[in-house]
Write a structure and sequence with these properties.
With 454 residues, the chain is mostly helical. The chain folds into two domains: 8-198, Up-down Bundle (Growth Hormone, Chain: A); 243-453, Growth Hormone, Chain: A (Up-down Bundle). The chain is built from 19 helices and no strands. The protein has helices at 8-44, 48-76, 78-97, 102-130, 136-162, 167-180, 183-193, 200-205, 209-220, 222-236, 249-267, 270-283, 291-312, 318-342, 347-364, 367-374, 381-408, 413-435, 444-453. The longest helix is centred in the N-terminal third of the chain and has 37 residues, at 8-44.
Length: 454
């Protein structure tokens, strides 16, 4: 599929809209099941085990979605895989709304997981390969902003649909409309993709130089386009483009950076709070017992502080924001654990929890996605991002499954659980301080060459 000709003043806007819409779908699909769960349980007469499977079915689809999307994007192009993601989201929204059996529902949610897994690895790559170096971090962070907006908006969409009928109507029809609403943004993403170009770096490694030149000229201007083409051709000639190359000594360090950052972003406990905020707030005696209000509080802080990353990631830099955010996380999580241990409850504990959410939103939320999309060579960037995304979804699943067991275990409880999350954040801080280089303002090819020099 040839890339469309896009005027220079429209190119980055369209690319930004694709990133934001892809992130929105990611966030919407991840969060929508929370509003539908109670009605699904009643409609299909689910056991507790089946209810857990219903919630995890999309996550289980994320893992193969991320793994296969890397190979497909390296082979067939980033834009084509984004088309596939939009189709998967739309198909999932439709199929999730019309299942006759619980098995049909699980299949539909697994399809949505394939879309989430694929888009979570391809959107950051697509932005990184098209955005000018000076604005790559800011544009990349818009993907994370789209995710948190999707999560936040979903709360209100679910509440609006629930208000259209009584408990019986919601059990029969309401949850179907919640899931079907995903079709609308999926169609919007599909429409945008007809007007955005393919990644010029992928086109160059595929031997389509004229097309890549036209796109780069539209995004960065003729002079900068020639410089980037020369730089890409120089490093592409040194690459084999095989999965095994990821384990070459030259790229061992960036691979470790990607895997560790993605793992820390989950083992710090963020999704323990996102998935179980009501349980945590109730245990803390904060008085926020309504699931909707607790989710709104967490979602609003997450949303607002993501703008810190958007504003400063290309000014302060990736490494500086990570160090600041992880440092605050360590203090906030240690404070939460200490207050649970001492029996301190109320507003002070709420402030500590929200402080952790704010620190995560400004650093460890968006920046690992940005860094992982920057630090690998073009020919294997898709495969590398697949490994990184596999890590984050596997870690997410582990945290979601272990938090209730740790929190409810009398020998461990919430205090020790949050101390474990604080220790993981401290390990992440030390790792960033000693191993993660700054990448702001550097071209992807300059970053690639720097690993050889190191």
């Amino acid at each position: 599929m040839p890339s469309p000709a896009v005027p220079r003043n429209h190119a980055l806007l369209l690319i930004t809209l694709v990133a934001a819409t892809g992130g929105f779908l990611f966030g919407y699909d991840t969060a929508v099941i929370n509003g539908a769960n109670q009605y699904l349980k009643a409609h299909f007469n689910l056991t507790p085990t089946q209810e857990g499977i219903a919630g995890a079915s999309a996550i289980l689809g994320c893992i193969p979605g991320a793994m296969f999307a890397g190979f497909l994007s390296d082979r067939f192009g980033r834009r084509k895989v984004l088309f596939l993601c939009a189709i998967l989201y739309a198909a999932s929204g439709l199929l999730s709304a019309i299942p006759r059996t619980f098995v049909e529902f699980l299949v539909a949610r697994f399809i949505s997981g394939l879309g989430i897994g694929a888009s979570s690895m391809i959107c950051p790559i697509y932005i990184a390969e098209l955005a000018p170096a000076a604005r790559r971090g800011r544009l990349g962070s818009l993907f994370q902003l789209g995710i948190v907006v999707g999560i936040f908006v979903t709360l209100f969409i679910n509440a609006l649909i629930q208000g259209q009928g009584d408990e019986v109507w919601n059990t029969t029809h309401g949850w179907r409309w919640m899931l079907a609403a995903e079709v609308a943004p999926a169609v919007v993403l599909l429409g945008f993709l007809f007007f955005v170009p393919e990644s010029p770096r992928w086109l160059l490694q595929a031997g389509r130089e004229d097309e890549a030149r036209r796109i780069l000229t539209g995004v960065a201007g003729a002079e900068q386009a020639e410089k980037e083409i020369a730089a890409v051709k120089e490093v592409v000639g040194q690459e084999e483009g095989r999965f095994s190359e990821l384990f070459h000594a030259r790229f061992r360090t960036p691979l470790i950076v990607a895997i560790v950052l993605m793992a820390v972003s989950q083992f710090c406990g963020i999704n323990a709070i996102m998935y179980y905020s009501t349980k945590i707030f109730t245990t803390a005696g904060i008085g926020v017992k309504d699931a909707f209000m607790s989710s709104v509080i967490v979602g609003l802080v997450n949303f607002l502080f993501t703008f810190v990353a958007v504003a400063f990631v290309d000014r302060a830099g990736r490494r500086a924001l990570l160090l600041i955010g992880l440092g605050i996380q360590v203090l906030a999580l240690a404070a939460v654990g200490g207050m649970f241990l001492a029996g301190v409850k109320g507003l002070l504990l709420l402030v500590a929890i929200l402080g952790f959410i704010a620190a995560f939103a400004m650093a460890l939320g968006p920046i690992p996605w940005i860094l992982c999309s920057e630090i690998f060579p073009t020919k294997v960037r898709g495969r590398a991002m697949s490994l990184a995304t596999f890590t984050i979804w596997t870690s997410c699943y582990v945290v979601a499954q272990t938090f209730p067991m740790l929190n409810d275990n009398p020998a461990i409880g919430p205090a020790k659980t949050f101390f474990v999350y604080a220790a993981c954040s401290l390990a992440g801080f030390i790792f960033v301080l000693t191993k993660v280089p700054e990448t702001k303002g550097r071209s992807l090819e300059e970053i690639e060459r720097s690993w050889s020099a190191r």
